[in-house]
Amino acid sequence: MSSLTLLSPAKLNLFLHITGRRADGYHNLQTLFQLLDYGDEMTFCTRHDGQISLTPELPGVDFEHNLIIKAVRKLEPYKKPDDGVDIQLLKRLPMGGGIGGGSSNAATTLVALNHLWGCGLSKNQLQSLGLQLGADVPVFINAQTAWAEGVGEALEPIKTQPKWFLVAQPDCHVSTAEIFSHKDLTRDSPAIKVAAFLERGGKNDCEALVRRLYPAVDKALILLQKFDRNARMTGTGACVFASFESAEQAQQVQANLPKDLPSFIAQGVNQSPLYKLLPSD
């Protein structure tokens, strides 16, 4: 039996511009995916009877509808019949938070089992399978902080300056499908270059709409913007974040947040632990 324990990291969208709506209903966007050194923990133990188990199963999520199991199924055509796995998930990242929990879990599963089962898939093949599961899965497979375009699958690794992030989790679950299908969503932001973002920054085109629909997100952002005027929402929310030069600064602000607003502090990283397991193309 072989086993592997991996961090399944969170991500932040340092900005999110929606530049248009495609004929297939998806949106073209630009974003900078910042990986964090914080996330869920996943342990994979191989077995030789072809069985698949996941512990614990997420409340309210059918086994076969869990993105982790969907990722396993994507690899089944490439494994030996007797290859199985027991997966243990230590869940830290909230669902519906915009920090990529489910997508990160799926990516970690694809990379870990490709390695443990010896499926022999390249990074590009893994990313193609991941994109079938969700637009955010490829960036986690790529395992690098990256500038992204298209639906989020066209990735260019980018090195960001070391920052510490305070991420707050308002008590609500934002539906990505609801936000991206809403008639009031901004969909015509002009495309920008990396240099322009690094010089002037960007915004999150989903933020104004989510703040209007989810008062808890609005309240959390008002709090964080007292300490960092550039605090913003990640993805389609609900999580919001502020950035700092040191962990101590982040801790000082965290101490001033209300007790009913959960939060965590993490450092931005340019590579996640999955990087060392990626096959060379």
UniProtKB/TrEMBL annotation:
Keywords: ATP-binding, Isoprene biosynthesis, Kinase, Nucleotide-binding, Transferase. Residues 66-141 form the GHMP kinase N-terminal domain. The active site is at K11, D136. Residues 198-260 form the GHMP kinase C-terminal domain. GO terms for molecular function: 4-(cytidine 5'-diphospho)-2-C-methyl-D-erythritol kinase activity. It holds the Pfam family GHMP_kinases_N. Belongs to the GHMP kinase family. IspE subfamily. NCBIfam families: ispE (TIGR00154). PANTHER family: 4-DIPHOSPHOCYTIDYL-2-C-METHYL-D-ERYTHRITOL KINASE, CHLOROPLASTIC. HAMAP family: IspE (MF_00061). This is 4-diphosphocytidyl-2-C-methyl-D-erythritol kinase.
